[in-house]
Amino acid sequence: MEPTVAALRLASGLVVPIVRKLFVTEGPGAGVVRRPVRISSLVSFHGEHRTLGETELDRLAGTLVARALESAGPGGRPVADDEEHAVADALARTLGALGTTELDDAAAVRLGHRDFARRLAEAAPYAARGLTRDGERFHAALLDTVCLHILHFLTQRSPFVATTLAARTRELAETRARVDELARRAPRHSAEDAAFEERYARDVITSHNHLTIYGIDLAHSPDRWSLDAAYLSLEVEFGQREAAGAAGAAGEPAGEQGAAGPRSVLPAEQALAGRQRVLLRGLAGSGKTTLVQRLAVAVARGQLPDSLRALRGRVPFVLPVRRFTRGHGTRDGFPPPDGFLAAVRYPRAGAQPAGWAERVMADGRALLLVDGVDEAPEDDRDRLRHAMRGLLARYPDTVWLVTSRPSAVRENWLTAEGFTELRLAPLSREGVAAFIQRWHAAAREDATDLDRIDHYEQTLLAAVRTTRELGRLATNPLMCGLICALHRDRRGYLPRGRRALYDAALSMLLERRDRERDMHTTDGIDLTQEPKVQLLQKLAHWMLVNGRSEMDRGVAVDTLAQHLPAIPHAAEQGGPEDIYRHLLNRTGLLREPTPGSVDFVHRTFQDYLSARAAVERHDFDFLIHHAHLDDWEEVVRMAVALARPDECAYLLEGLLAPRKGARPVEARHRKLLAAACLEHATELDPGVRARVHRYTRDLMRPTSLEGARALGWIGAIVLEMLPDPAHVSDTEAHQLAVTATSVADDRAIGYLTRLRDRASWQVRSQLAGAWRHYDTDRYADEIIAHLDPTELEFPVSSLEELHALRRLGGRPCVQITGQLTPAQLVDGLVPESLTYLWLTHAPADERMDWLGAFPRLRTLQVPRDAHVTAVPEGVHVIHE
User: CA-to-CA distance for 518 and 865, rounded, in angstroms?
Assistant: First the structure.
């Protein structure tokens, strides 16, 4: 039997009497205190009220283990006979941490039983050492169950806790009732079930432990990679509503529900922790399916991070929705439990014991990974939801993760069923670098060009950092995978210019990806790439002309209706409404951010398609006329990349030419835009290039911070035109530093070295804060190492930067802007130099005793809402 199941079958009648013995017997009048009480003062084996000794604690733990093993029944023991005593000893040592914890009863209840169990386990880190894998899982599951009853006991003994944390109190009571019901009705595990589950787990690992990159048909780039080597932990974002809900569940004031505010970002594993039902939205290529695969493999292996320990012992069912209509046993849009395996064409579906899947669901051990609701025909999605509701009601203890593209189902599609809606976030700069490293690590596994892989990896990492177009495209795993594959297939070279890159991306998203996935049409429409491009260009061009970044859904349908007659291949397959839905759900380029509106998933694609439309229509005067407008800047630059040489020259000459009635600021903007376009012109008359240089050289001396930042927008070419900073004032030097650090190109480092010795705090601060834009080690050696550290905070956004700063001897004041763990900080920061530490991502509730490793630390700055404890004496805490 699974260790988790054995622990869950411990009913309250077996556990409560033992839990009560862990705490002191209270006399008359006890329990009426209207304040939190430290747990260590309540236990019966510690402190002045001690009535139990170590032997008695061992005996109670042994009784819990024995009763859990008895509940498993003959032949269902989760651990071997000779490990029973070791598990009991580990449980006793872990429960012993109740006597030393600094938590009070209210704080413990607020945490919830799983996080409370984690706290106890962390306080006794060596308790489970030496146990087998099953022993560790059995110990963890027992601890979770015991902590559930401990917290329920604390709510019963304290009116203060019960009243103050009423929602959490009800939740604990309901959870305990579900556990009792499970213990009462759960059937015994048969040897046949156990044998099949073991084989099924191995098959899940074999089937899903790979990463597939669709759209790659290149000679040197296989499309399947080891998931172990290539998987990158994704980040999930959730808005104010979800954050407020989490705060309310923890007993904290939630504030105004649904208020506007920034979205928080967490690693996916952390965001999913403690959530039983999740609808995860993500754009095409954002990694939804990969996350599903990773969870399935991790659960099948029993190798999960602590944050997802609640999933241990569950049986993963990976259910791609696109297979349901072709699967067996599907009814009402969703297969019944006994049809799960047949629906996804599992080769051993016929070998499963009769009723096995039903028993797994009834036992509360299932993990349903429903992938791609958007891949169900649109008319079937309501039936799909109705069928899911039936399963939710019948099997309330099942854990669900449902994925969909954002536009396929409306907001709050499953909220009434208790689902939390989360979104996959774009990859960060560090995430892009990590993906490239993982991709090349996977490529090494079966590479025939192994000697070249290291070179490919390093050159691509440098290119993504320094090439603006690559950086703007590399925002999700799908696009990063395309870039990696193109780079390797061309033996270390990428398509030159943004046109080739965008064309490759469009080809993958619009045609090849679904074709190579053997996707059947879900809406009866099958368009080739070129008609899709033409139709999308019409929408992008409308947005450009009307100065909009999104358009009403009705306007989009009307726009398509105007142009469909000229595109017969599309017109013969459906009306404008049908074509609109097809473009929305199957191209990966459109989304509905709010009901009734549509936009492009990335402004870059809107601008590129707008530029294509303008060039095909020869609207060059139209582009020149609007070139001073911010919304047209990128379109003009892309049009230069797409235009023929004579058209390109016409555009640039038009930008330089005076225009009647134009304001000076508009004329200056056009000239600067002409300079910015130079790097995108594949072929250009040298005379035109020379005139652009001559007209713009005198404009490259910023006179304000706003102007300095605007110059940085031009790109690396601005570095050739900036004045020598040797003889300028500190104010001008600061403006030049702003301009140069706005150029995300390592070529800027050479210019910045001429500013690094300035005494001005503004200049030094500007240079220190720009570190993350450039090659870490080079910038550290050529810039960071030379900055006077007086009153200067050094931002650190990655582990690579932390190690580089340590190599330089550390700095007194350090600002941690990345998600780094206490262990990494202890290892990376220099104790002899650190006096001021600023943690911008400190958890809401965090022990800071690890700061004892820094004897000279005097000030700790944390976010305003962070609740830090165990701060070493002498360290002043600032909340900002």
Answer: 49
SS (H, E, C) 610-665: HHHHHHHCCCHHHHHHHCCCHHHHHHHHHHHHHCCHHHHHHHHHHHHCCCCCCCHH
What is the rounded CA–CA span in Å between residue 161 and residue 171? 13
CA dihedral (196, 201, 203, 204) positive or negative = positive
Count other Cβ atoms within 10 Å, centred on residue 816: 23
The residues pairing with 318 across neighbouring beta strands, listed in sequence order, are: 369
CA-CA distance, 271 to 401, in Å (whole number)? 12
For 15-71, the DSSP string reads HHHHHHHTBPPP-TTTT--SS--BGGGTBTTSSTT----HHHHHHHHHHHHHHHHHH
Residues in the chain: 880
Q: How many CB atoms lie within 10 A of CB 170?
A: 12
Q: How far apart are CA 509 and CA 756, in angstroms?
A: 45
Rounded Cα distance, 638 and 498, in Å: 8
Among 514, 542, 544, 539, smallest CA distance to 529 is for 514
Q: Which of 70, 833, 771 is nearest to 429 (CA)?
A: 771
Digit-coded pLDDT (tens) for 667-678: 887 888 888 888
The torsion region of residue 508 among left (phi > 0), alpha (psi -120 to 50) and beta comes to alpha
Residues 6+ apart with CB under 8 A from 862: 839, 842, 868, 877, 878, 879, 880
Q: Which residues on adjacent β-strands are paired with residue 836? A: 813, 859
Map residue 128 onto helix, strand or coil: coil
Phi, psi at 474, each rounded to 5°: -80, 70
Looking at the chain, the number of H-run helices and the number of E-run strands are 40, 19
Nearest of 653, 733, 641 to residue 688 by alpha carbon: 653
Calpha distance 313→366 (Å, rounded): 9
Whether this model's pTM surpasses 0.70: no
Q: Are 277 and 397 in contact (CB under 8 A)?
A: no
* Packed helices 576-586 and 553-563: angle between N→C axes, nearest 10 degrees: 110
Name the band, by pLDDT with cuts 50, 70 and 90, for residue 218. very low
Distances from the Cα of 267 to the Cαs of 12, 289, 293, 362, 367, in angstroms? 35, 16, 16, 31, 20
**What are the C-alpha distances in Å from 853 to residues 101, 125, 581, 810, 812?**
21, 19, 58, 14, 15
The angle at the Cα of 563, spanning 557 to 566, to the nearest 5 degrees, equals: 145
- The b/e string for 353-371 (b: 16+ C-beta within 10 A; e otherwise) is eeebbbbbbbbbbbbbbbb
Q: Report, in angstroms and rounded to the nearest whole number, the Rg of the chain calculated over CA atoms.
A: 31
CA–CA separation, 357 and 317 (whole Å): 10
Measured at the CA of 659, the angle between CA 658 and CA 662, to 5 degrees, comes to: 110
Tokens 């996707």 appear where?
Answer: 519
Segment 371-423, tens digit of pLDDT: 988 777 666 788 888 889 999 988 888 999 999 877 667 777 888 888 988 88
Cα–Cα distances (Å) from 108 to 263, 517, 754, in that order, read 27, 48, 56
Q: 357 with 350: CB under 8 angstroms?
A: no
Residue 802 predicted with pLDDT over 50:
yes
Burial (CB count <10 Å: 0-12, 13-18, 19+), residue 631: middle
Residue in 271, 587, 269, 278 with CA at minimum distance from that of residue 414:
278
CA distance 224 to 152: 49
Q: Which DSSP category does 872 fall into? A: P
Q: Contact 188/480 with Cβ under 8 angstroms?
A: no
User: pLDDT of 859-879, one tens digit each?
Assistant: 998 876 567 888 999 999 887
274: left (phi over 0), alpha (psi -120 to 50) or beta: left
